[in-house]
Amino acid sequence: MLLDVANLIVQAIIGLATLIGVMASLYQIHREKFLRMEEERREQSAQISLWYEEVRDRTDWPRDDRFVWQAVVLRNASESPVYDVIVTCVGISGAGPEPRGEDNDHDFPYRTCVGALPPGTWYVWLPTGGAGMHVRTAPEGAFTDAGGISWVRRGNGKLEKIGSEPAFFYELDLPLEWGGCRRLDR
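User: That's the sequence. What structure does it adopt?
Assistant: Structure tokens below.
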């Protein structure tokens, strides 16, 4: 009888261990599926980048002397366009604009509305306040991917999902004047 009780306890422990193992496996499968779906969701947005072009001397810069104009390279390494692209000058250091574009006023002048960004390498002119007083700036880009998810690529390169379309994210007055961009990689 004592042996039967011991066998029953051993079987209960084995059954419990099996149940815990199955639950852990199911959790891991669910987690891997979630991570894979999240990676698929980020796939296109991770291929969008932007930076100041420092090397070329362009002659097509805007002739508006109120601003210091910077050429911003926009790179879409995906196979589909992204939409509603808005580029904003943000501060990295010094007494310049805020480090997050949405923290600047809705009528912030250092912003340009691009519209659609096809695959490839493009550029656009961005009005800035210049680099006086040790101000260091960078371009920030907000956009909507082909799946309808909106993102912002911060001036420091970090990619963040945002909860609304770029124009609403920046609280811009509508209608917007979309300017487009020029091809760089020809």
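Strands lie at 48-52, 68-76, 82-93, 111-117, 120-128, 136-144, 150-153, 159-162, 182-183.
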